[in-house]
Design brief:
The chain has 331 residues and is mostly beta strands. The chain is 8% helix and 52% strand.
Length: 331
Amino acid sequence: MKKYKYIVVMFLASLCLSCLFFKLSAAEKNPSNSDHPDIEFQETIYDFGAAGQQEEIVHDFFFKNVGGKTLTIKGVRTCCGCIAKSVSNKTILPGESGSIKVIFETRKYRGRRTKSIFVESDDPGEPEIELKISGIIRTEMAVIPEFLYFGDVAKGKETTKELKLIQIGEKELRLEKVDLSAEYLSAQVCELVDDRNRGFKINVSLGTNTPVGKLAEVITLYTNLKRRPRIDVPIAGNILGRIRVKPQMLSLGCLKKGEKASQKIAVMSADGKDFQIIKVVASVPFVSTKVSKINKDKGFEIAIKAGKNAPAGKIKGIQGDAHENMHFISC
């Protein structure tokens, strides 16, 4: 009997020591929070599962101030521009709750993605907490490339670039229509079927009538997909005439009011033939120009100067564009 009493006493003693140890551990982990704010989130990671491209994932991260003093949210920052965020209230009284709304734009992402949101507060124990939103972004198709760049192309030269529309999902992909933003652009469509890909190949061509200057157009693809019925692909390049201007963009830098500044532009012949500059027109009235002949290179040098009468502030104008603001005669 004494033996059993001894066992019961030892058990109770062990239980008391365990409780005491647990309380001490809890006190060490979370010392008295009555004298400071203490932020506690219900969750720090949200998995949205699967979503498509061009969707918005909206989620609220709820938190509570379990401390004894008012909690202040100092700021919320994100890792990229694809996430918008808002705070329900920046000051939370003890025992009250708040939330941080997060909107994640899936855009053209593909596969598993994880994005972070950082919450800064005046909680001395956790001044910054990282929240994460994660999931898989599925797509039914892919456009390769997503940006069609022709580079430098001589005027009058027909040039073609290839664009691919590839089926990725199980649903059959159909290309219903192709629209081009300019009459000098053309497109030929054919089916793309090989061991790895199924879809369409679009050959986009610049005609010989493409005007000189910067190329900025769009090709629009219409599909049978509900999530991506319309796909806009930017087209860019630079169409070069027989007169080449370097540089095509000029900066006079940062000047003090009344300070003079000058830069030079070279105007050359691409085919080696002589030409003359009849007139140079600047859209900024306080800018003066002086044209000098470069004999050995069969070209010209234009000195551009900003006068003392230039007003304070940013200066923006057009000067030295061979196909719009300069007039040439070939001979």
